[in-house]
Amino acid sequence: MTMLNVLRLWQARHSERRSFARELMSLPDASLKDFGITRHSAYELSHRPFWRA
Fold this sequence. Notes:
Blueprint: H1 3-26, H2 29-35, H3 39-46
Helix pairs in contact: 1-3
């Protein structure tokens, strides 16, 4: 795998994670509770750096 392919993969994963983070933060508290996480946990998950995902 070339460096360019690695960078493209990282960019694709970053975009997917950002999309997931936006969706996670838009969920109501009741839905988050169904998943077993709090609003604070959802915030932390959605604001992690990409290298810690």
